[in-house]
Amino acid sequence: MDGFKWATGRCCLKCGKPLSPSNPRVICYSCSEHKHNYHRGYTCTEYGTHERSLLYKLKYNGSTYVAPMVAEVMYDRMISLGIEDDYDILIPAPSHKSRALSRGYNQTELIAEELSRLTHIPASDEILERISHTAAMRTLTPEQRRSQLQGVFAMKKGQEEAVRNKRVLLVDDIYTTGATADALSELLYSSGAARVDILSFSAGADVVK
């Protein structure tokens, strides 16, 4: 994966994204301005041209062979951080049914399944669901994203016991503002999860908004 911006240097101690050389702090500019519901976040790369191209193939071109590649990178990142044994369950960020049907799959579910195979941590896509569709949020501010995600996710009926007192690792392909991670973490904590962290393949740059 030549040209990838690996998260091997200083990273935010909250969300995990690579810190800008101009940022002297231990958390990114975004996390210094917004509190998050999850405990810790981790990522593998900074989102750039090569990362975008790879994930585009997985999300829009039907290139499911990319999922194992992404999962292997995420597994290597977990090992480098020493967190490969820290969780009881892996939960992929859910897609709306219409989006999953149009693609034929949910890309985060494929990644979580492969990551489960590598870590031997159970993965489940039967716990969280996206109950309403939202428009693309690329141009929205963090506050607008959080507002748009209100009521978008839900726990599936009778699944609270699956996360009660469990250490949960949310699995996602991209981390931007953390609005999705926060909405999902809030649901999991309200259902009794002991700890909720998030691992993404790629995260947005540490920039001042």
Question: Can you tell me the residue ranges where pLDDT is under 50 for at least 5 consecutive residues?
Answer: none
Globally, the shape reads: globular
- Quote the beta fraction: 15-25%
Number of strands: 7
Largest sheet: 5 strands, mixed
Mean pLDDT: 91
Helical content band: 25-40%
List the strand order in the largest sheet: 1-2-7-6-3
Distance between the termini: 29 Å
Structural class: alpha/beta
Description:
The structure is a single chain. α3 (66-81) packs across α5 and α6 crosses α8. β6 (167-175), α8 (179-190) and β7 form a beta-alpha-beta unit. The chain has helices at 29-33, 49-60, 66-81, 97-103, 107-119, 142-148, 160-163, 179-190; strands at residues 5-6, 40-46, 89-92, 128-130, 153-155, 167-175, 195-203. The model has no long low-confidence stretch (mean pLDDT 91). It has eight helices and seven strands; from the N terminus they run βαβααβααβαβαβαβ. The chain is an alpha/beta fold and 209 residues long.
SSE layout:
Layout (H helix, E strand, L loop, with lengths): L4 E2 L22 H5 L6 E7 L2 H12 L5 H16 L7 E4 L4 H7 L3 H13 L8 E3 L11 H7 L4 E3 L4 H4 L3 E9 L3 H12 L4 E9 L6
Parallel strand pairs: 2-7, 3-6, 6-7
Antiparallel strand pairs: 1-2, 4-5
Helix pairs in contact: 3-5, 6-8
Summarize the entry for a quick read.
This protein is α/β, with parallel strands linked by helices and 209 residues long.
Sum up the structure in keywords.
209 residues, single chain, 18% strand, two-stranded antiparallel ribbon, alpha/beta, five-stranded mixed sheet, 8 helices
